[in-house]
Amino acid sequence: MELIETNLKGCFVIQPKTFSDSRGALTKVFHSPTFKELGLRVDFQEEYYSVSSKGVVRGLHFQVPPDDHVKCVSCLNGSIFDVVVDIRTSSPTFGQHYSTVLDHRNPTLLYIPPGMAHGFLSLEEGSIFLNRTTTVFSPSCDSGIRWDSCGIDWPEMEYIVSEKDQKMPALEDYNSPF
């Protein structure tokens, strides 16, 4: 696996190796010894996936302390426009974001440290998003900011946004505990 730095400290793109032959392909998306060697956390406690229609926006989500966590995300089918926003008030990149396209045809992971809001836009019908976290989902620590409040240049299309995500506070109105 290759670790690629982003403009946000502690947020990395992970490029795993894919092995292909006449039968198809195999990609290892987690390998504890390699993650440890790269200085990444390996104590993941929960993993889930979502299936989204084209145009679905999910986010920008995070968990606040004491159940904040590292996320390691990837796209298993289709493609997503994936975004991370730094909400660590003492960070020199506070309020800045990193975006990339995660596509199952070019397997890539995004490693997201605590103190960052995360979200994505499904670019295709039936995109499958995989999320691995170092803490279990905690409703009392669940939080977020509005997906359209951070200066992100989202791909233009008809957006489908949940009522919950529409009601999130804007970044400028959010009092970050990070």
From TrEMBL:
It catalyses: dTDP-4-dehydro-6-deoxy-alpha-D-glucose = dTDP-4-dehydro-beta-L-rhamnose. Pfam families: dTDP_sugar_isom (PF00908). One of its GO terms (molecular function) is dTDP-4-dehydrorhamnose 3,5-epimerase activity. It comes from the Bacteria. One of its GO terms (biological process) is polysaccharide biosynthetic process. Coiled coil: none annotated. One of its GO terms (cellular component) is cytosol. The record marks 137 as: Participates in a stacking interaction with the thymidine ring of dTDP-4-oxo-6-deoxyglucose. Pathway: Carbohydrate biosynthesis; dTDP-L-rhamnose biosynthesis. Its EC number is 5.1.3.13. InterPro entries: RmlC-like, RmlC-like_jellyroll, RmlC_Cupin_sf. Keywords: Isomerase. Catalyzes the epimerization of the C3' and C5'positions of dTDP-6-deoxy-D-xylo-4-hexulose, forming dTDP-6-deoxy-L-lyxo-4-hexulose. Belongs to the dTDP-4-dehydrorhamnose 3,5-epimerase family. Homodimer. This is dTDP-4-dehydrorhamnose 3,5-epimerase. It comes from Algoriphagus iocasae.
